[in-house]
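Wait, mind explaining this?

_____
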Amino acid sequence: MLKLVMAALVLSVFCRWAIGKWPWELLRSAPTRSQAIFRARKLLGVEAGARREEIIAAHRRLTTLVHPDKGGTNAAMQEANAARDLLLDELPHPHGGPPGEP
């Protein structure tokens, strides 16, 4: 039994050294797009049916708090921008086609 525990420990350390992650970290699934959208809405404080104007206003409010010039961090600003971009990308295109088409 002790040999089995030691082997598992050695294998875990080797995995961490070789891959950079612990074995149990490999079992977690990558976040899905719907989870990312949920986190973006939560970060900006908007509801699921938020319009473009609401998303942009929420982003402006958040960036006044997290902007590096106001004592925030670059990482927080990048997260706010990514949340805004993701939610805007999810909105239906005004002309009915896919985003990016005129």
The chain has a mean pLDDT of 87. Residues 33-90 form a domain with the Helix Hairpins fold (CATH 1.10.287.110).
